[in-house]
Amino acid sequence: MNFIDCLVLTFANMALCLSLPKLLSLLTAPKTRKLESIKPALSVPIVESEAPRLLQIES
Predict the structure, then answer these.
(1) What is the spatial distance between Cα 43 and Cα 5, in angstroms, rounded to a whole number?
(2) What angle do CA 31, 33, 37 make, to 5 degrees?
(3) Is residue 12 situated within a structural domain?
């Protein structure tokens, strides 16, 4: 075998060995919860300031 063939096989083997466990875990993970229940509610309440205004603008 040529040196380049060995390099290609080595990199293909590394990519397969690194990605296969992640792919298997994604495929075999239980799908019991929906995506909406995982996301937190991101609503921010509007709070009125009670501090007095320093600069009054009169029209």
Answers:
(1) 56
(2) 150
(3) yes
